[in-house]
Amino acid sequence: MDNLEKQLICPICLEMFSKPVVILPCQHNLCRKCANDVFQASNPLWQSRGSTTVSSGGRFRCPSCRHEVVLDRHGVYGLQRNLLVENIIDIYKQESSRPLHSKAEQHLMCEEHEEEKINIYCLSCEVPTCSLCKVFGAHKDCEVAPLPTIYKRQKSELSDGIAMLVAGNDRVQAVITQMEEVCQTIEDNSRRQKQLLTQRFESLCAVLEERKAELLQALAREQEQKLQRVRGLIRQYGDHLEASSKLVESAIQSMEEPQMALYLQQAKELINKVGTMSKVELAGRPEPGYESMDQFSVSVEHVAEMLRTIDFQAGASGEEEDEEVPLDGEEGSAGPEEERPDGPEGECPEGPGGAGPTLRSPFR
Fold it and tell me: Looking at the whole model, is its pTM more than 0.70?
């Protein structure tokens, strides 16, 4: 019976379950009144039963296992009654003719008066004692009260303290949950901003690659033009050299002719050809410095310096971003491509709207 009695003690009021007894989803039992006290402490804004306002329910934690119990709009009245426990309580009360803890109280005797049971409580010393101690003993000048009265009062205080502690733990758990959600939000926002930051720098790299390709094309065109001219001169000089060499060879062969009459028949024509060939003026050679390509050098120091000033800009809104000039600078760029070799003009797209910092472009 003692073991059965321990199983029928409510963890809130520390007394035997009072009907109706409700069973929680975690299979622990509570007096419905105690369950309602804990629920009300955890949900102070919840409307009591019978209120005309429709409530959305609430939640509290089981005092035995800390399992979270979620209730609907009926509150604790929506929990299922444990009829088995109620029947066991009825059988226990029928089989037991003594009040709870009576056996323990019968054996609790006064140390000073061994034949006297402890039946009063000294309010001054805050200890239980017997009647003889009040009349003749150490507590004769103290204020006392009946033991059952103080017993019920302190059990009620302890029950209220447990309910408050449980409610406080629920509030702490709610704060922890909120801070965990804040951590998750920080991670999500950081991941999104990292993606946007990467996209913007990739856009900058794309603009630089595009501009580099344009400048390389301009350099390649100039190279081809100069090479075509010089190679044309090389062919012209080569043709002249080949013709002159053949004429020299013919003249040498003619000079080796032993017969004077035959030599003189060809000499006049060769002399005229040699004279004409020697007077031919070839096209001019490329002017000094023609091979230089220094005019295609670019200065990027100031652009690199501006890129180093890129930083986050706090307080940028989404609407301001929509009004930014595109990074590729297709609109509003001035001058032909040969006149802007130092890099594109435009603005770097900024990050998403919100209070967080966004990328500030130096190209403004």
Answer: no
